[in-house]
Design goal:
heterodimer; A: about 170 residues; alpha+beta
């Protein structure tokens, strides 16, 4: 948190979006946007992507192979036991596999989410500003040497920022 | 015509975003009302009764229950299935409606999920207690052991139950908590006392609400939802297979899995309705849980009630059509008529007939009647499990083994205890956790709720 940031505070979603658009048109790099609820448009403008679905799919494959491997090992290799003449490698494994895939996907996806977000019990919020979890929206721009702060300031104010500060 | 808003206004009263936060959090920032302490006291007393019953069961043994060799599954399994059914509310509500993009879920999903977690905890107690020797309960888990190693029977629905219910508990609890994190951050940011700030700061995992966080958050919620939707169907299908894979007359039917899943969602929705009417009234949330919300649930219940009626009729028809003596005896002489008629007809009346009154708008919009019917449904669903468990077991293929069953005080005590645990859980929830998903309410505000000054907001 050493580097300085310029914060534009807004109280309306539409003003926030048009402000991001005009900042990006002028070639300024919007570092982040903080909002009290998810806004799809912001994801589009900041070109954000997430690899969580791909990871979840990977976890599903791990869960599938892992569970089948475990069932096969226990029931066919380690201790083959005959239940009423049924085959040892049976179709009813499908049910345990199905549920265990869900178990593995849910637990590992969540773990990945918290690791990627660096969040967990007792983690400190990296950024604080009054009202960001209530009804304020914040645009964060990294302050660099060659940045024209005045024009950013004016632009944000013109687009309806209620306040522009530095932190 | 095709643009008609089906659900109408979801949040009434032209709220601003700030108002939503303060409205939802207001009950926690006030002092707890007197009725909360009274309810807490009553629930604690009920829990004490339950603890006594559990102590008796564990220290003396399963002989303290009313079950016998013929009717080995009594109240324990009835209540297990009943609680699991109620525990389907959260998933049914929050996850099916999330996947179907139904925006009206936002005011109710949090409470429904909280209910689910507590109800599944209550449900899990029963199979454990029913083992009798609870201290060797861990033996149902497949782990390398010194007995062979002898593994559990992976082909048994009872083992599938262990896997499914623990997965369901884990999934619904984490899904609930994940959704809560942004709202806990709201509580943290508004907290005035240092202690409260520290506690909610710890619980909110350092949530800020940056764009990337929100994107990942929504994606994770959708993945969890997508995973939990088939899970909820699997859980109750598996519970039904505990019955359906046996050869008991009245249990051995292919209709059981869908019939159980629908029944579970039925009782879950009814319980949500009961609780939401109380919460709405107690905390004056009429702007958020509108009559439209309650009517939407009532309409779903009407439909599910029709399915329940169909399922009951199908069972009876197939029993006759199969021409199998045992089935015919069970359905025609041990349910419709015979020793258990009262339970059977209570079940039919409560589940298939009374909810049909929701067809009338007058009934649907009368909150008191809706509240009463929602309770009646859960009574009916309890009797459904009673009918299934007790009638089939009481008179099986061997008349010499016919038996009757009445619960002992210990079984009743356990049930009362779980009701107490449920009560305590719900009361703690409404006191310390935002009752509605604040951030989700805010996402639906603009699209669905600002009518009078629409122009300013577009």
């Amino acid at each position: 948190m050493n580097n300085q940031k310029i914060l534009g505070i807004y109280d309306d979603e539409n003003k926030l979006i048009s402000s991001i658009q005009s900042l990006q048109d002028k070639g300024y790099k919007v570092k982040d946007v903080v909002s009290p609820y998810p806004i799809e448009k912001v994801f589009e403008l900041l070109k954000l992507k997430t690899r969580l679905p791909a990871l979840a799919f990977l976890y599903a494959i791990i869960g599938l192979i892992g569970t089948f491997g475990f069932l096969y090992w226990t029931s066919v290799i380690n201790y083959p036991l005959v239940f009423g003449g049924k085959p040892q490698n049976t179709l009813s494994f499908v049910i345990v596999i199905f549920v265990m895939v869900i178990f593995v996907v849910v637990s590992l996806t969540l773990t990945s989410f918290f690791i990627a977000e660096k969040k967990g019990p007792g983690a400190k919020p990296g950024f604080e500003y009054p009202g960001i979890s209530d009804d304020k929206y914040v645009i964060i721009i990294d302050k660099t040497q060659d940045l024209d702060i005045d024009s950013i300031n004016k632009l944000m104010k013109k687009e309806g920022a209620i306040e522009v500060t530095e932190q | 015509m095709y643009n008609k808003e089906v659900r109408g206004v979801l949040i009434q009263g032209n709220k601003t975003y700030g108002q939503i936060t303060s409205d939802v959090l207001a009950p926690q920032e006030r002092k707890a009302p007197t009725w909360w302490f009274i309810a807490m006291f009553v629930s604690s007393v009920m829990m004490m009764v339950g603890l006594w019953a559990i102590y008796t069961t564990v220290s003396v043994g399963i002989g303290t229950w009313g079950v016998n060799n013929s009717i080995a599954w009594g109240w324990g399994i009835i209540n297990f299935v009943w609680w699991i059914g109620i525990g389907h509310a959260g998933t049914a509500f929050s996850i099916f409606l999330l996947i179907l993009r139904q925006k009206w879920r936002t005011s109710i999903n949090r409470a429904a999920e909280a209910m689910t977690v507590v109800a599944v905890l209550c449900a899990g107690l029963f199979p454990l207690l029913h083992m009798g020797r609870i201290w060797i309960g861990f033996m149902v888990m497949p782990y390398p052991n010194s007995r062979g190693p002898l593994w559990v029977n992976f082909n048994s629905p009872l083992f599938w139950d262990v896997v499914a219910i623990s997965t369901y508990l884990m999934t619904s609890a984490t899904f609930w908590y994940l959704g809560m994190i942004p709202d806990l951050a709201s509580v943290r940011d508004r907290a005035t006392s240092k202690v409260k700030k520290a506690i909610y700061g710890f619980m909110s995992f350092g949530w800020v609400g940056t764009a990337k966080s929100w994107l990942r958050f929504e994606t994770a919620a959708l993945i969890l939802g997508g995973m939990a939707a088939p899970l909820v169907i699997a859980v109750h299908s598996i519970v039904s297979m505990d019955f359906a894979t046996s050869v008991m007359a009245g249990w051995h039917t292919t209709v059981f899995p869908p019939y159980f899943v629908i029944g579970a969602i039925f009782s879950g929705f009814a319980m949500v309705l009961t609780l939401m009417i109380i919460i709405r009234k107690a905390f004056k949330f009429q702007d958020y849980v509108t009559e439209g919300h309650l009517q939407a649930i009532a309409k779903i219940l009407t439909f599910i009630s029709l399915i329940m009626g169909t399922a009951y009729t199908t069972e009876i028809f197939i029993a006759w059509y199969s021409g199998m003596e045992g089935e015919i005896y069970t359905f025609f002489h041990n349910r419709i008529s015979g020793d258990h008629t009262k339970a059977f007809w209570t079940m039919v009346t409560c589940n298939a007939i009374i909810p049909q009154f929701f067809w009338f708008k007058k009934v649907r919009s009368n909150i008191t009647l809706v509240f009463i019917i929602s309770i009646i449904i859960n009574i009916g669903m309890w009797f459904e499990r009673y009918v299934i468990v007790v009638t089939s077991l009481s008179k099986d293929y061997l008349p010499a083994a016919w038996s009757s069953y009445s619960p002992s005080i210990v079984e009743v005590g356990t049930y009362v205890g779980t009701l107490g645990i449920f009560g305590i859980g719900v009361l703690l929830f409404i006191r310390y956790i935002p009752m509605m998903a604040i951030s989700e309410l805010k996402t639906v505000l603009k699209g669905t709720s600002i009518i009078t000054n629409k122009k300013d907001h577009e």
